[in-house]
Amino acid sequence: MNCSLYKYLIGVASIFFMSSCGQQHDAECLVDAFLEENAVHPEKIENRNFLKLDSTKLISDSLIDVFQHRKNELFKPDIKYAVNNSGRMLYYIRMNFTYEGDTLYQTFYIDESFGHIVAFK
Q1: Which residues pair with 97 in a beta bridge?
Q2: Residue 87 — left, alpha, or beta (φ > 0 → left; ψ -120 to 50 → alpha)?
Q3: Can you list the positions of beta strands (E) in 1-121?
Q4: How far is it, in rounded angstroms, from Cα 92 to Cα 63?
Q5: What's the pLDDT tens digit per position in 20-52?
Q6: Is the distance from CB of 78 to CB of 114 less than 8 angstroms?
């Protein structure tokens, strides 16, 4: 492999890696803001640990609706969600945390623009 092609591939890989880190950070910040606004006691959600951000097109509108209407004692009952554009890709990030001594997990679904939480389970 010639040297300039090798340098080009390394550059492209570096750009991809840096943009992925930015999306991960954006997702974590969005979830933190969502928790502060919608958790009943956000101060009790401790040791937040985020897993790797990923994407999916396999979550249907009806499943999003189920997630949005599911009751969860950690969250306020009147959460206002972003509207999911049917058939579009969603990002998701899983977070484990401790709440009153218990280790719990939540998965948050994020719209393509990284502007809104669409649902969580």
Answers
A1: 104
A2: left
A3: 45-50, 54-56, 90-99, 102-110, 117-120
A4: 14
A5: 468 999 999 999 999 999 999 999 999 999 999
A6: no
Helix, coil or strand: residue 75:
strand
| Residue type, position 13, single letter | A
CA atoms of 55 and 90, how far apart (whole Å) = 6
Q: Give this prediction's pTM.
A: 0.78
Q: Give the span between the Cα atoms of 114 and 30, in whole angstroms.
A: 8
Name the amino acid, one letter, at 32: D
Spatial contact of 51 and 96, defined as CB atoms under 8 Å apart: yes
SS3 97: strand
Pairing type for strands 90-99 and 54-56 reads antiparallel
Q: 């959460």: which residue's tokens?
A: 79
Taking the C-alpha atoms of residue 116 and residue 82, their distance in angstroms, rounded to an integer, is 6
At 31, list the tokens: 């979830």
